[in-house]
Amino acid sequence: MRNQTQRVEIETGVPTQPAGPILSARNLTKLYNAGTAREVVALTDVNFDIFPGDLVSIVGPSGCGKSTLLRALAGLSRPTAGSLLIDGEPLINPGPKAAMVFQQPVLLPWRTILDNVMLPIEFRELPIANHRAHALDLLASVGLAGFEARFPHELSGGMQQRAAIVRALVQDPQILLMDEPFGALDAMTREQMNLDVLKLWQQTGKTIVFVTHSITEAIFLSQRVFVMTARPGRLAREITVDLPFPRGLDVINTDAFGVNAGEVRALLQARSEI
Amino acid sequence: MSGIANHVEVAPAGVAQPARGGLPMLLRRAPERIVAPLIALLLLGAWEFATHVLDVPEFILPQPEAVWSALIGGLSHGAFDRGGYWYHAGITVYESVAGLVLGSVVGAVLGFAFGASRGLERSVYPFIIAFQALPKVALAPLLVIWFGLGFNGKIYITAIITFFPVLIAALAGSHAVDPDRLDLARSCNARPLQIMRKIVIPSAMPFLFAGLNVASALAVLGAIVGEFVGARAGLGMLLIQYDQAMEIAPLFAILIILGIIGFALNQSIRIVERRVCFWAQRRDLTSL
C-alpha cells in the first residue's frame, strides 16, 4: 500500500511528504574516547527530520562527521547522546529498513556477482529462490545482465559499485544510505552514476541519504542539502534545492544551481575561516 | 653519422629476430628452465668429483652410483614388504599427513576462536606462547612413552609441531579482515557465526595457507623425530638402522626420498591453495 501511494506521488513529479518522518535526529551527539584525554567530538547537537521518499545529501569537509552520522543512521555506531528514531522507533541495531552503500564496493572476491548480491538475503535468512529472481531483475536494471556469474575483479569500478547498490536494494529497504559511493570513480562514470541514482529514486520512491564532499554532487542529488562543518561536527544549515525533476546533467549549468552551489560554498568557507 | 647508426641498428634487428628465438630468448623469458638444471648438474658433478677424484671415503660421502643403486634396490620391493622403502615411506607419509591434518585443524580452530574473542585470546594465548617456547622435539621421548611405538605418538608429535604456524596464520588472518566487510555483514544483521563462516574464514584463507605451507615443511620433521625415538617402522627408523650399521649409501637414498616427500607435500598444499584462494591469486596477477 505504502509503496503504491509513493509511486503515484512520484509519477505526478512532485513528491509530497506523508505525515511522520522516517528518520528523525534530536540533539544527536557522538564522542570518541569519551571521558579520556583523547576525547574527540565527532558530532554535536545534530537535529533533522527526513521524510519517506526524501532525497537528501549531507555535504561537508573531511572529518566533519558526515560518515559518522551515516553510520549512526545505519545502526553501525551508537550515538553517545540524543535520540535517533527510524519510522518512529528508536534506532538501536541495524535493521531491514535501511541498507548501506559503502565508499568501496566491498564485494567479496570469492563470490560471483550474483552471490555477492544475495549475501544480505543469506544473512537475513530470507527465502533464496524468490529473492534470486529479484536480484537478477535488479542486476539487469542497472545494466549488469550477463555478469551474474562473473567475479568482482572482472568488472570495472563503476560496475562493481552498481553491483553494490543492487546488493543494498535486494533487501528492499525503505532507506538507502550512501557513503560517498562514487568518490573512487572517474568523473565520467561518476556523472553517469549520479544520473542512475536519480532514476532509481524516481522509479522506486526510496528515501535516499547521500553523503558526499562534492558540492555539485550534493545539489544535483538532493531536494535538501545538509551542510556540515568540522570540529566539532555540526549540521550548519539545511539548504532547499528547488530544481525540477527529472534532472539532466544540463541542470548543473543553470543559474538556480549556481545560486545553491554558492550558498553551500559560502557556508563551508565561512566555517573553515574561523 | 646518424644514417650509419640507423643502418646498423635496423639491419640486425630485422635479420637477427628469427635467430634469437632459441637459447637467449629462453634465458630471458624463463631463466629457471636453464639455470636450475645447470645447478643440479653442477652439484652432481661436484659429488662425482669428490668421490672419484678427491677420493672422499665412502663412509663420509658415498659415490652417486652407490646411492642410486641403493635407491633402486630399496624401491624394487612391494608396498607391503618390510624390506623395501615403499612400506616405510608409506608409514612416514601417513604419520606426517595425519599429524599435519590434526595440528592444522586444532591450530585453525584456536586461531579463529582467538580472532573472534579478545578475551579468549588474552587468557589462553600466553600459555600457548610458553608452550611454543619449549623445544617440542624434547617432548618426543615422552610421547613415545605415553603412546608406545605405534603411529599415534608420531602423529601427536607432528600435530604439536605443526599447529602453531597454522594458529598464528588463522589469528593474523582474522585480524586482517577488511573492516568494511565486517560493517557490511553487521549492517545486514549478520550473527557472529554467520560473519565467521561467510566473511572471516574465507577472507583469512590466503593467510591460512601461508601457515599451512610452513606447517607442511615441519610435518615430515615431526614424524622422523618420533621414529628416531622409538618405532617399529618408518623412514626415520630405517635412517637410525643404517646409521648404526654405517651403511651410508642407503642412508643417502632415504634422505632423497624424504626430500621428495617434503616437496610433494608442499606442492599438494600449493595446488589446494590455488583452487581455494583462486581469487587472491587473480588479484595478484591483475595488480602486476
Question: How does this structure look, described?
Answer:
- The complex is a heterodimer of chains A (274) and B (288).
- Chain A is an alpha/beta fold.
- Chain A has one domain (2-97, 173-273): 3-Layer(aba) Sandwich (Rossmann fold), CATH 3.40.50.300.
- Helix content of chain A is 36%, strand content 23%.
- Chain A has helices at 2-11, 66-73, 113-117, 119-124, 128-141, 157-169, 187-204, 215-220, 255-273, and strands at 23-32, 40-50, 55-59, 81-86, 89-90, 98-101, 175-179, 207-212, 224-229, 234-240.
- A 6-stranded mixed β-sheet of chain A has the order 6-7-8-3-9-10, with helices on both faces. In chain A, strands 2-1-4-5 form a 4-stranded antiparallel β-sheet, covered by helices on one side.
- In chain A, a hairpin with a 2-residue loop joins β4 and β5.
- Chain A is globular and about 50 Å long.
- In chain A, 41% of the residues are buried.
- Chain B has 2 domains: 21-56; 71-287, MetI-like (MetI-like fold, Orthogonal Bundle).
- Chain B is built from 13 helices and no strands.
- The model of chain B is unreliable at 1-17 and 283-288 (pLDDT under 50).
- The longest helix of chain B is centred in the last third of the chain and has 38 residues, at 192-229.
- Chain B is 82% helix and 0% strand.
- Chain B has helices spanning 2-19, 23-29, 32-53, 64-75, 85-116, 118-133, 140-147, 151-175, 179-187, 192-229, 235-244, 248-276, 278-287.
- Chain B has 288 residues and is mainly α.
- Classes of the chains: A alpha/beta (274), B mainly alpha (288).
- The interface between A and B is medium-sized, with 25 and 24 residues.
